[in-house]
Design goal:
Layout (H helix, E strand, L loop, with lengths): L15 H5 L13 E9 L7 H14 L4 E5 L7 H4 L7 E3 L2 E3 L1 E2 L5 E3 L16 H13 L5 E8 L6 H9 L4 E6 L5 H14 L4 E6 L4 E2 L6 E2 L7 H7 L4 E4 L4 H8 L12 H8 L2
Parallel strand pairs: 1-7, 1-8, 2-6, 2-7, 8-9, 9-12
Antiparallel strand pairs: 3-4, 5-6, 10-11
Helix pairs in contact: 4-5
């Protein structure tokens, strides 16, 4: 038997070194970049407000003086550029791609910044979409980033799996809604994070209530929320309950999400800072 070179990539032997060092699927970060913390924003189903939570968290961390970035990994349903009022095409340079920047300096990469027309549908199969997500990590010049938030597609399919395996996630935030499906939504997301050994920072419930503009009473238009029980059953922390607020909707629609004000996510910000 020849002497071991400790290079498993060119060896077929099933030795102890190979068994004790499972293959890593992490993609290499662009050599022109430095990203300190990577936070995924996930959900077991679509339409619960992942992109909204991603945008709000990025805005709050930017306000605190951190160098912040958003990777829009929801390739078939990108909404981050519109939310931040970012348009045009991302600039391609010889060695990669330069991300767009919001008014306040948040770096953004989304498939909409690479399409000729942002309304063009992305009709690609899973492996192609997964490859694009990897390129967003390895080909984009992120420069120096303190916190990167990854807006992940819903569910537990190819692309979420690619993000879990390819990016060095420091934790994930689960987004849910107050409907009866909440238990299923959270359970799916918790199950996937646990199977992939990714820390769960906590859960945020969106569309929890509407606040009366006159008496400030909270109106539960979807019925009583069970998110506290679901969070407790799954051993995770409830970080926030976001209201249905016309001013937030208007800010997103007009590309002015960075102008929003509210303290709903302060607890989430504090916990992410402690990672």
């Amino acid at each position: 038997m020849s002497e071991c070179s400790h290079d498993c990539s060119n060896c077929s032997s099933d030795c102890a070194d190979r068994q004790n060092n499972p293959k890593s699927f992490l993609e290499p970060l662009n050599p022109h970049s430095s990203v300190k913390k990577v936070i995924g924003v996930i959900s077991g189903k679509g339409g619960v407000g992942k992109s909204l939570v991603t945008g709000l968290l990025a805005t709050l961390f930017s306000r605190k003086g951190y160098k912040t970035a958003i990777m829009d990994a929801d390739i078939t349903g990108p909404s981050i550029p519109k939310m931040f009022g970012v348009g045009g095409r991302a600039m391609q340079v010889p060695d990669g791609i330069l991300p767009a920047e919001s008014r306040n300096g948040i770096k953004i990469m989304s498939i909409n910044l690479l399409l000729e027309n942002p309304t063009d549908p992305v009709i690609w199969r899973g492996p192609v979409i997964a490859g694009v997500v990897k390129q967003f990590w390895s080909d984009v010049f992120w420069d120096e980033v303190d916190y990167m938030f990854v807006d992940m597609p819903p569910g537990t399919g190819d692309v979420p799996l690619t993000v879990f395996q390819s990016l060095p996630l420091d934790g994930v935030v689960i987004v849910s809604s107050p409907q009866d499906l909440v238990s299923m939504i959270v359970n799916k997301a918790v199950g996937m994070a646990n199977m992939m050994n990714i820390p769960i920072i906590g859960v945020i419930e969106n569309m929890s209530y509407v606040e009366c503009p006159d008496c400030k009473k909270k109106i539960m238009i979807y019925g009583e929320s069970h998110i506290e029980t679901v969070a407790k059953d799954n051993g995770i922390e409830l970080l926030a309950q976001l209201p249905i607020a016309p001013e937030i909707t208007s800010a997103c629609d007009t590309g002015l999400i960075e102008d929003f004000f509210g303290d709903w996510l302060d607890k989430a910000v504090e916990k992410i800072e402690r990672l």
